[in-house]
Amino acid sequence: MKVCIPSAKSGGLEDLVGQHFGMVPVYTVLDTETDDVQIVENTSQHNGGVGLPPELLSNAGVDIMLCGGLGTKAVNMFSEFGIEVFVGAQGTVEAAISEWKEGNLASPNSENVCQGHDHDHNHQH
């Protein structure tokens, strides 16, 4: 199973979780069966490339996305690609994976997803 975390840099498991999944420069992908770590550059249209992050990550074989938060539209797109999402990730990539393994990250719902861009919160849109 491949678990993906939006990352602030290319530091792998020691990097910090990027808090805006679509705008991060890279995604850290951990294969939980082999412990291999892959860095996937964010070449989506959010960073001047093509396509959207869910498509990019689907092509990388990702099964699970762990992030700080995201909007309903993104949750639906990940679902269309068969990628399960968990929110509330913070700290290092390694810490976020541990929190997920311990069942401490939540599935997105109406209480914990961004509903639009007209609200005040701590990440950039």
TrEMBL record:
<protein>
    <recommendedName>
        <fullName>Dinitrogenase iron-molybdenum cofactor biosynthesis domain-containing protein</fullName>
    </recommendedName>
</protein>
<dbReference type="InterPro" id="IPR036105">
    <property type="entry name" value="DiNase_FeMo-co_biosyn_sf"/>
</dbReference>
<dbReference type="Pfam" id="PF02579">
    <property type="entry name" value="Nitro_FeMo-Co"/>
</dbReference>
<dbReference type="InterPro" id="IPR003731">
    <property type="entry name" value="Di-Nase_FeMo-co_biosynth"/>
</dbReference>
<feature type="domain" description="Dinitrogenase iron-molybdenum cofactor biosynthesis">
    <location>
        <begin position="14"/>
        <end position="101"/>
    </location>
</feature>
<dbReference type="InterPro" id="IPR033913">
    <property type="entry name" value="MTH1175_dom"/>
</dbReference>
